Amino acid sequence: MTPVYWIMIAITVLFTLLGMLSAWRTGDTKWPFVFGFFSILPVTIVLAVQGEGAAWRRWMIVALVAVYVARMLYTLLIWFNATGAAKLKDQVKPSQFLVLPLVLVPVFCWLYPLPFFAAMDRTDPFGLYDALTLICYALGTLFHLGADYQKWAFKQNPENRGKLLHGGFWGLSRHPNYFGDFLIYLSFALVSVWPWGLVAPVVNLLQYFFDAIPKNEKLSQERHGENWARYCRSTPLFLPYGAFKS
């Protein structure tokens, strides 16, 4: 086993332990998610350092991941109550908080960065896949950040207590932030120009469609009743084509 894999294993163990310790000390879901998201950055840097591809591309990838991580940490630390991670606190037992890092950190250390194993060795000049990567990443960031900010701002207004957010990004899709996150991981797959790079966006989709989305849909139905049912009839679940619906 090469040294880079040992370093990645060490990062995985370290951030898993930090996530478990923080969950135990705080009794909250915030910090396991913080350490989970952050762990992808040091792994990406390690892969960039050991990569043999074009230097500009390796450090462009590091920059894209760093911006993504910084934005997610801001969201988790400042807008936490408007995130799905905050809802999760009411959906699982406190004893299960310790399990979160055991799932999150390995995913962020090994599955989501999988495209970078190939991308960091690409030696070809800037081309179509690089352009598509930047476009996809920009659109994903727009949807992810825009939707999260809109929800946070909506909840800051006391007059909106108990009301359902259904305009702006949330009028295009019932989960526009998840759609944006998917586009970001799709951009990581595009920069790899490698079939196995698709593992990252596929894992992202599976996590949303078999875990996060069903939980959020159920909770929203319980909270909003018929208002939620009307919203579902007029707004698509994931793909943001709500603007094209009559």
Automatic annotation (TrEMBL):
It comes from the Bacteria. Gene3D superfamilies: 1.20.120.1630. The keyword Amino-acid biosynthesis does not apply. The chain crosses the membrane at residues 5-25, 31-49, 61-82, 94-114, 126-147, 182-210. Keywords: Membrane, Plasmid, Transmembrane, Transmembrane helix. InterPro entries: UstE-like. PANTHER family: 3-OXO-5-ALPHA-STEROID 4-DEHYDROGENASE, STEROID 5-ALPHA REDUCTASE C-TERMINAL DOMAIN-CONTAINING PROTEIN. This is DUF1295 domain-containing protein.
